[in-house]
Amino acid sequence: MYNFIFQNPVKIVFGKGQIARLNQLVPPGATIMLTYGGGSIKKNGIYDAVKQALAGFNIIEFGGIESNPKYETLVKAIELGKQKNVNFLLAVGGGSVLDGTKLIAAALPIPNDPWDIIQNKVKVEIAIPLAVVTTIPATGSEMNERAVISRLSTQEKYAFASPLVMPQFAILDPEVCYTLPKKQLANGLVDSYIHVMEQYLTFPVDAMVQDKFSESLLKIIIEIAPKILDDQTNYDYCANFMWTSTLALNGLIGAGVPQDWASHKIGHELTALHGLDHAQTLAIILPGVMNIMRESKREKLEQYGREVWNITMGSVNERIDKAINKTETFFQQTGLKTHLSDFNIGEDTIEKIANRFEKRAFQLGEHQNITPDLIRAILKDRL
Ligand code: NZQ
Ligand code: ZN
Description:
Blueprint: E1 11-14, H1 22-25, E2 31-36, H2 40-43, H3 46-53, E3 58-62, H4 71-83, E4 88-93, H5 95-107, H6 115-118, E5 130-134, E6 146-151, E7 156-161, E8 169-172, H7 182-200, H8 208-230, H9 235-247, H10 262-274, H11 278-292, H12 298-309, H13 316-334, H14 347-360, H15 372-381
Parallel strand pairs: 1-8, 2-3, 2-4, 4-5, 5-8
Antiparallel strand pairs: 6-7
Helix pairs in contact: 4-5, 7-8, 7-9, 7-11, 8-9, 8-12, 10-11, 11-13, 11-15, 12-13, 14-15
This protein binds 5,6-dihydroxy-NADP and zinc ion.
């Protein structure tokens, strides 16, 4: 196992009815900016529950943060926050609203163009405190330091990270799942699954806790997916799914082990160029990464097949083929597509993406050995 430092300060407030605790969690006297997305919270009662819990607080609202939150929208929130001297941010939404709010938190106290933060031209040294009411289990953003922001004008999508934008607290009420569209449930299941895979499917470093914890999370997602897709108002399914998805990307299983993230980085390009949902891009790309990188991931691929899917028979390559197949079929069973052609995406996009990575001059994967040519091969594998 590698050396590591692990610190996660996010207070998790988990369970039914916990939104009502907001008035004890938000600092008294704060000028709060309440951020939200396209309006789902106004239809499903979450907005009303938040407003009721925060009666008497000074609240400035900023709605309309879209999926794959846009820089162009967030600069408006930052301007408003500066005007109103906002000193606390409360994101009520999914990963998009929360990630957007993380950028607002980092940009509010400084005069720079917020894009400088995303481009790592400015180091985040100060941020406005933020918190979240999560409305979709998926990204794990509620308990981590990352945010992923898109820019419309240049069709780019990049992540930035800082411990200063980790939420002060996160309210996780599993009942939010009851109103999720099926597609968003599927997105959340697949995104959570692939967060585990990015931190697990690399090469062995004798990290038993991280490996067995990861395998358990994967098996829970496989078990719970058909149940929750069939009955999304079952509280226990929702509770288990929600906690799994948070643990999948809160730093715990990734501490002390190599990490990949190639599927995510290639997937961000598909979202930036074609607007595909984040999890949808991953369901397409991951089977390609598994196939094309099978040599450098061989030991972990065998372990994954054996421990997660009970694949023990056949040659190494046959077992790896079966593991890839099982994984792809699982994604399809949630309702997501697994091929570029399902979205009429072809060779021209593949070239565009490979060229983008060529210009950036860095390689992907746990060995930094995924060259632009291999990115091209991974994408061609998914046509
Ligand atoms: O915008 P509203 O109207 O709220 O509707 C949303 C949106 O259309 C809807 N929704 C959310 N909660 C709902 C609901 N509808 C009904 N009932 C509810 N309870 O769901 C749609 C999707 O929301 P979004 O926030 O976009 O989804 P998700 O949580 O999957 O977030 C995706 C974003 O997170 C980034 C992705 O790249 C993408 O931009 N990620 C962030 C990560 C992080 N910060 O650590 C890691 C991930 O790998 C990922 O990259
Ligand atoms: Zn993800």
